[in-house]
Known about the structure:
Layout: E1 34-36, E2 42-44, E3 51-56, H1 80-89, H2 91-96, E4 101-106, H3 110-120, E5 125-128, H4 133-138, E6 142-145, E7 148-151, E8 154-159, E9 162-167, H5 176-186
Parallel strand pairs: 3-4, 4-5
Antiparallel strand pairs: 1-2, 3-8, 6-7, 8-9
Amino acid sequence: MRSDSVYELPKDLPVPQDDGACDHLTGMTLPPIGLPSTRGRVVDLSRLAGTVVVYVYPRTGRPDQEAPTGWNAIPGARGCTPQSCAFRDHYEELQRAGADHVFGLSTQDSAYQREAVERLHLPFELLSDAGLELAKALNLPTFEVDGMKLIRRLTLIARNGAIVKVFYPVFPPDQNASDVLAWLLHRKV
Length: 189
């Protein structure tokens, strides 16, 4: 068992700074890449009509496994479970506000992600970019810990395959769903 809770954010987390690593994304077209989902299908974000929300997170933790080395000290690393729970809790509101599709995305494989979907009762699919194909195609910011290459936390909103809004850096992670909801309610797209 972990020595801390995956469901709560420590009060002393370092705040990630905007390093400009996502400035190039707004206006880009999503690449035609099929990503495995926790529902056993392949999702190509570029082909989805309407408004698509994709929150990208480094990795969800599990209550029975310790976090990676120095996890709480890496700005923006901690908080994937609270972020996912917030998207779960706001899911219906996001849909009413115009989100036609909501996905979480990490580099973890779908088998690992399915455990999180079940444990957290997520009503949406998680997508796996285990090969970092989407991350490389979009030049998403990454970092390495314990031999894993992970994507930094960010959220993309796309409309008919084109990125119209990027949230980066995302902090605190448990407020990201509320921020996305507020943007959707007041958007001009």
